Amino acid sequence: MPEIVFIMGKSASGKDKIYKALMEDESLNLSTVTLYTTRPMRVGETEGVEYHFVDDAAAQAMVDAGRVVEMREYNTVYGVWKYFTADDGQIQLGSGKRYVVIGTLEAYDKFCEFYGKEHLMPIYIEVDDGIRLMRAIHREQKQQKPHYEEMCRRFLADSADFSEDNITKAGIMRRFYNNGEFESCLNEVKDAVRSIECS
């Protein structure tokens, strides 16, 4: 039975909003797993909620200690930003708990390798590229110092990272469409998560 619900999607797909909604729904009884990043904190983010924000030295120390499950590095216009999951005791398979994680397709593959594919439920959020671009611009406009160059780089990189070939190779069969009414997509995701209890 899957114990880890893994939320993923391209930038500005709404995956963060869906992740937060799942966390806040006590009826789903999901434990959170906070990932790590070396990128700067965005406006509205909180340490330990969206991510653990660490510097490069702290990230390397975890790598050296063999505590990193997966790590992605992005060569942004502001330098190299790292995103990673640490084997820090947050996930304990067989404990009766269910977890919700947010990450990339590459991170999902690493989770499958580390924990076993049978323990994961992939939730892939799909959004039309035009809608996604408008959302990304709107989100960036809210930042104190908008990073439009990085937004464009990430938007284009997602096309390669989430290619149809990569999605197929990861074994992802179902997509959750977030092109219109958010609540409709969220309810579909919640129904999928609840179905774990019945499987």
For the structure shown, list the relevant keywords.
globular; alpha/beta; four-stranded mixed beta sheet; 7 helices; about 200 residues; Rossmann fold
Provide structural commentary.
The chain has 199 residues and is of the alpha/beta class. The protein has a domain of 136 residues: 3-Layer(aba) Sandwich (Rossmann fold), CATH 3.40.50.300. It has seven helices and nine strands. The strands form two sheets. A five-stranded parallel β-sheet has the order 2-7-1-8-9, with helices on both faces. A four-stranded mixed β-sheet has the order 4-3-6-5. A hairpin with a 2-residue loop joins strand 5 and strand 6. It is globular. The relative contact order is 0.22. The model has no long low-confidence stretch (mean pLDDT 92).
Q: What's the average pLDDT?
A: 92
Our estimate of the beta-strand percent is 15-25%
Largest sheet: 5 strands, parallel
How far is the N terminus from the C terminus?
A: 7 Å
Low-confidence stretches: none
Helix and strand run: EHEEEHEEEHEHHHEH
Q: Helicity level, as a percent range? A: 40-55%
**Shape descriptor:** globular
**SS-based structural class?**
alpha/beta
Task: Describe this structure in a few short sentences.
With 199 residues, the chain is α/β, with parallel strands linked by helices. Helix content is 40%, strand content 24%.
Question: What is the element layout, followed by pairings?
Answer:
Layout: E1 4-9, H1 15-24, E2 30-32, E3 35-37, E4 51-53, H2 56-64, E5 68-76, E6 79-86, E7 98-103, H3 105-115, E8 120-126, H4 129-141, H5 148-161, H6 164-169, E9 175-177, H7 182-198
Parallel strand pairs: 1-7, 1-8, 2-7, 3-4, 8-9
Antiparallel strand pairs: 3-6, 5-6
